[in-house]
Fold this protein.
Amino acid sequence: MTTQVDFEVHYTSLHDEETRLNSTLRGRFELARMQHLLGSYLPEPPAEVADIGGGPGAHACWLQERGYSVELLDPVERHVEQATAAGLSAVQGDARRLPWENGQFDAALLAGPIYHLTEAADRRLALREAIRVVRPGGFLAVVAINRAANLIGSTIANTLLKRQGVVTDILETGYSPDNERMAQTTYHTTTQLRTELTNAGLRSVTIHGLTGPGGWLTVALDRYFGEIELPDFLCEPVPMETALECSRLADRHPELTPSSSLLFAVGQCV
């Protein structure tokens, strides 16, 4: 797993996770897609949900507002403080050693541990722990980062030639020690992700493109416009609606799943 110093520095000094999903078009798009996919699988409230690696609580707040009982765990002290301040039940801890009882939850979300645990053995531990705390028949949702994300994103930003070594490492192995974008991060293929979840004991594993191909429109607009007002020809239709419709269309075609920068996998616990 990421060393504590690297992880804390990234999420405390270099990256503001609390604002990420609200401050950019890309973040708002990801949040909307996450809520859509979670809503497709969640049992009715007031089911109990574990948000493992839940950061400052963006997803947990949404779940709690809908009537779910949510427990959040995150390794970063700052995130736990932010989640607590937002009115969530939050504890600092490790996804590989969960503090909860067997079968305590109806569902669990791992929206961070699977890509921040760079060793396969650590990911297996985290998955087995998550399965342990979910009742039989409940579901586990996992977010992973696609190996192709750096290749496509760097091409859109025209930084591929500068980052070619990092991109090549990630495409070939799923990890680069020189990756300057995120602290200790591993990247999955869809086949690798399905295999890891199935081997951990999940059944009926389904993988969706969390952001899908539509997400790349939001990446490009954030990259080249940011805070600048969009030109008229990009304002109508509303780019968010175009991106959402693109990814909704792609949801009907599983062969398009690898076009997504983020992967959303769900399986049933036994």
